[in-house]
UniProtKB/TrEMBL annotation:
Its main location: membrane. It holds the Pfam family ExbD. One of its GO terms (molecular function) is transmembrane transporter activity. It is found in: Cell inner membrane; Cell membrane. One of its GO terms (cellular component) is plasma membrane. It comes from the Bacteria. It is a single-pass type II membrane protein. It comes from Sphingomonas parva. The lineage of its organism: Bacteria, Pseudomonadati, Pseudomonadota, Alphaproteobacteria, Sphingomonadales. Belongs to the ExbD/TolR family. The chain crosses the membrane at residues 29-47. Keywords: Cell inner membrane, Cell membrane, Membrane, Protein transport, Transmembrane, Transmembrane helix, Transport. This is Biopolymer transporter ExbD. One of its GO terms (biological process) is protein transport. Involved in the TonB-dependent energy-dependent transport of various receptor-bound substrates.
Length: 147
């Protein structure tokens, strides 16, 4: 007589019967904390970023004057159309600011002027304390670059 042997089926996970897990599931808590951390990292720099500006206080006061400084291709300077030596430029600029600190200087440079002359003149302007300056004629530099 031939005997057949059959295997017994055993459960895949051996252990006690299904009991509730009493540990706290921390995965959702960690997910929420990471989302909040990312939100703070993104929003805090935007809230603390600021730009210092001198805003007008209201109507009235002295209207600022606009003065013009020209630098030609040979390095000669002209302040409000009058030729001026580089050594005499700083006292003129200080006198301009003595009337009103809000006066504006428009600086126009020829496109063929040397950069050293421009840099020296700009150093004189900044050394005199001029804070409100505008640059005119920038299209001349574009034309000089295209040659």
């Amino acid at each position: 007589m031939i005997r057949r042997y059959t295997r017994r089926r055993t459960p895949l996970l051996a252990g006690p019967a299904e009991t509730p897990i009493s540990d706290l599931n921390t995965t959702p808590l960690i997910d929420v904390m990471l989302v909040l951390l990312i939100m703070f990292i993104v929003t805090i720099p935007l809230a603390t970023h600021g730009i210092k500006m001198d805003l007008p206080t209201g109507p009235g006061g002295v209207e600022p004057e606009t003065h013009r400084l020209d630098l030609d291709r040979t390095g000669r300077l002209a302040f409000d159309g009058v030729p001026v030596a580089p050594a005499a430029l700083a006292p003129r600029l200080r006198a301009m600011l003595a009337d009103n600190r809000d006066n504006v200087l428009h600086f126009r440079t020829d496109g063929d002027a040397r950069y050293e002359d421009f840099d020296r003149t700009l150093a004189i302007v900044k050394g005199a304390g001029v804070e409100r300056i505008g640059f005119l004629g920038n299209e001349a530099f574009v034309a000089a670059l295209e040659r």
